[in-house]
Amino acid sequence: MTKRLTLCADDFAQSGSISAGILQLVDAGRLSATSVLCQSPLWPELAGEIKARADRVDVGLHFNLTHPFDAPVKPLSHWLMKSQLRQLSQAALRDEALAQIDRFAEHYGRLPDFVDGHQHVHALPVIRDALFDAIRRRWQQDAPPYLRSPDKLGHPGDNRLKALVLRSVCTNFDEQARERGFSTSPWFGGMYSLSPQADFAGLMQAWLARAPDRALIMCHPGLPTNDASDPIAASRGREFDFLSGSAFAELCLKHKVGIARFQPEPAIAA
């Protein structure tokens, strides 16, 4: 039996090279989802490119509080500390989520298929409640988006400490999301150091072997570039080269994995 896997490329619209790489991988059938940094000045012109492929890929909002575009932002350390201390304004965060949802929809023509977060900020305490509220306000008539649950991380990648911290700061996110009627994936993977020395191919083999049906794995590909403004540019190129090559296709066959759009969990008959 083939295992369905949602393979999601993060950071669409962050740059031209990232977006071009993602579009090529979608065209090759190597991705089934991508999440958008809609604050990017490139989003208005790129929205049509990804919408033209909407029949084969889920397109979601990559909720952002840490990557600077036209406005100053706080570093991840700020959000980690303030969220754990519950020292954040839920109303202000809800308004920010609404603004990003609206900018996504303005150029894409409809609401996103799913919501996740840049550096997983969407799943932090207080921020998650603000996001739940924003979604409730915008999806009044439509089926709600599915959500990424970082606390369902099923493999530590190459950094067990980073994995432990992620699960800890996002604890109970999946349970709270499901209590509110959101669909989530039962297993999440793709986290690693994002360093050029990392064995992405070896990690992908481990993730595909471990992943159950309906798993979700994130990735960060982009066309190879020397973009000095992107600290993980080298890793993006390595991911793109691997995901576009024959070795990845062979791994999917070996582990009986089919790259597929997200499938909600079947309802249990009464």
From TrEMBL:
Keyword Zinc: no
InterPro entries tied to this protein: Glyco_hydro/deAcase_b/a-brl, YdjC-like
One Pfam family per UniProt: YdjC
Magnesium as UniProt keyword: yes
Top-rank EC class of the record's enzyme: transferase
Keywords: Carbohydrate metabolism, Glycosyltransferase, Hydrolase, Magnesium, Metal-binding, Transferase
Recorded GO MF terms: cellobiose phosphorylase activity; deacetylase activity; hydrolase activity; metal ion binding
GO biological process, one term: carbohydrate metabolic process
Known cofactor(s): Mg(2+)
Listed EC numbers: 2.4.1.20
PANTHER family per record: CARBOHYDRATE DEACETYLASE, YDJC DEACETYLASE FAMILY MEMBER
Protein name (record): Probable cellobiose phosphorylase
Species this protein is from: Chromobacterium violaceum (strain ATCC 12472 / DSM 30191 / JCM 1249 / CCUG 213 / NBRC 12614 / NCIMB 9131 / NCTC 9757 / MK)
